[in-house]
Specification:
mainly alpha; 166 residues; three-stranded parallel sheet; globular; two-stranded parallel ribbon; 58% helix; Rossmann fold
């Protein structure tokens, strides 16, 4: 069963869009919510293919901009996180999201402190490999590094490759 509520920060969306894999989120979740700050950050995406994929997802309605409720955690979190991360975590907490997609370690820590389950781009690629949506995560990690300039430590890469059986 798919989670009923998924919120996301900018990084998982932009990175998957850049490598042409944003559709993996639609296939898995059906709908992903983003706060206004994440929408604004995605508008500045310089990769034309990635920007087009994000615009298409917004146009199709499965990537949806959600306003934050008046009472939320964003103001407190903005003291230690960027606006997109703070608002994504606040949106996840306010809506009771089943999953919050966030890649930055500090954001993941704060999200977990608020009781949120976190996921990220590598976990999404691993899931896609397990369900047969992609043949290899090794090639996707290469593309993340080359095309999106995504940093992955050697130990994290080794962990995900081992989990994927690659």
């Amino acid at each position: 069963m798919s989670p009923k509520g998924v919120a996301s920060n900018t990084s998982p969306l932009s990175n998957l869009a850049i490598i042409g894999r944003l559709d993996l989120l639609f296939a898995r979740y059906g709908r992903v919510s983003i706060p206004p700050a994440v929408a604004a950050e995605l508008q500045t995406l310089t990769h034309s293919g990635g920007r087009a994929a994000v615009h298409a997802a917004l146009g199709a309605g499965w990537l949806a901009i959600e306003p934050l409720p008046a009472e939320n955690e964003a103001a407190r979190l903005r003291n230690v996180l960027d606006a997109g991360e703070a608002e994504a975590i606040a949106l996840g907490a306010a809506t009771g999201a089943d999953v919050l997609l966030v890649d930055v370690r500090r954001g993941r820590v704060f999200a977990r402190e608020l009781g949120l389950n976190v996921g990220g781009v590598l976990g999404e690629l691993l899931h896609a490999k397990f369900v047969g949506a992609i043949p290899s995560i090794k090639s996707e990690i290469f593309r993340l590094r080359a095309d999106a300039r995504f940093f992955i430590s050697a130990s994290i890469e080794a962990f995900f490759l081992k989990e994927a059986g690659e």
